[in-house]
Amino acid sequence: MTDTAATRILVLNSGSSSVKYQLLDMRDSSRLALGLVERIGEETSRLVHSPLVGDGSGKRERTGPIADHEAALKAVAEELARDGLGLDSPELAAIGHRVVHGGLKFSAPTVITDEVLAEIERLVPVAPLHNPANITGIRTAQALRPDLPQVAVFDTAFHTTMPESAARYAIDVETADAHRIRRYGFHGTSHAFVSRETAKLLGKDPSEVNVIVLHLGNGASASAVRGGVCVDTSMGLTPLEGLVMGTRSGDIDPAVVFHLKRVAGMSTDEIDVLLNKKSGLVGLCGDNDMREIRRRIDEGDQRALLAFEIYIHRLKKYIGSYYAVLGRVDAVVFTAGVGENAAPVRAAAIAGLEELGLVVDADLNAVRADAARLISPEYARVAVAVVPTDEELEIARQTYALVDA
């Protein structure tokens, strides 16, 4: 068990050229500081640090070269120390790391050992864009505080409860097993947090509630959660499958890949870039910002309108299919940047689903608020909600619960 005075958790989300961080006090889940280091390895590196203690008015920014993740975390430690929140504080209980892919081995937060780190490295082939950066962040943090527990919280963990009927693809079993090909799902910390908060909003225990969670940001995913347990999710082996996203295609006939290779003469890498970075909303209309797309629609832009309609069509398909998977649905909940802020997306996704008990109240939907809220009328058979996600708080909670136990 941690020292009773050690109640702070530092949450690190290490990307290939960035580090997002938050320092939280788990006595009341309050944030003490947060920040972002971006463009690591470039001459134009930038660190933005916001202390949230006191009056919270001391936001600071520094620019200039930050060579690597080690330099980035040292800079973060310096900024925290300026606020009396240094990494050498006896109040720091652990560092929680977001790790995108944990495969099937990790279904819960895990204290990082050499063996754990080796397994995360073995998963690099199925998460080549994310796990290497996560590993770099872990190793750097270990070097800075080798005496402190380091905990991995996996994006995939919440989805490891899926039954084999949902997780397996219908391909040769031996080939699939040899190459770890199956649906893993992502955004798991968000889906876990939001499904629990939705149950709280309904005044029920998570075990009593069936929820469809729609995490709609530049990356987007849906999940079917039965009694607090994930039974299906839209992302698969990688975050490419599923909903239409900002730059990712989502579901597509796999033969499109063969066609592009044989007929268009595209290389595997070119197709990878096409489907991950040049598809989705940006491929359909040139924009991946839903606010800009809505502005263009209001001006009569037909290309933007078609992109929006394709986006909504896919959303409706997943709502309907997950309704069928769950059998009974207590709530459909929208979260993340688009889900929380784009009222037209919410209205369009639910429109026409009245026979399923789904209705949106136009006035409630138009309200902008930071709190979890219902946007369905009282008479609706199924609640429709907006619940802000908080992945950093979820990582901090899981990390603290593990080291405190």
Q: What do you see in this structure?
A:
The protein is an alpha/beta fold and 405 residues long. It is 38% helix and 19% strand. The chain contains 15 helices and 14 strands. An eight-stranded mixed beta sheet has the order 5-4-3-2-1-6-8-7, with helices on both faces. Strands 11-10-9-12-14-13 form a six-stranded mixed beta sheet, with helices on both faces. Strand 1 and strand 2 form a beta hairpin. Helix 10 crosses helix 11 and helix 11 packs across helix 13. The chain is globular. The N and C termini lie close together (6 Å). The relative contact order is 0.11.
Name the strands of the widest sheet in spatial order: 5-4-3-2-1-6-8-7
Residue-averaged pLDDT: 93
Q: Whole-number radius of gyration?
A: 22 Å
* Count of strand segments: 14
H/E element order: EEEEEHEEHHEHHHEEEHHHHHEHHHEEH
Q: What distance lies between the first and last C-alpha atoms, to the nearest angstrom?
A: 6 Å
Q: Output the structural class.
A: alpha/beta
Number of helices: 15
Shape: globular
Low-confidence stretches: none
Helix percentage range: 25-40%
Strand content is 15-25%
**Sheet having the most strands:** 8 strands, mixed
Fold blueprint:
Blueprint: E1 8-14, E2 19-25, E3 30-38, E4 46-51, E5 60-63, H1 69-82, E6 92-99, E7 110-111, H2 114-122, H3 131-144, E8 150-154, H4 164-167, H5 173-178, H6 188-201, E9 210-216, E10 220-226, E11 229-233, H7 255-262, H8 268-277, H9 280-285, H10 290-298, H11 302-326, E12 331-335, H12 336-341, H13 343-350, H14 362-366, E13 373-374, E14 383-386, H15 391-404
Parallel strand pairs: 1-6, 6-8, 9-12, 12-14
Antiparallel strand pairs: 1-2, 2-3, 3-4, 4-5, 7-8, 9-10, 10-11, 13-14
Helix pairs in contact: 1-3, 10-11, 11-13
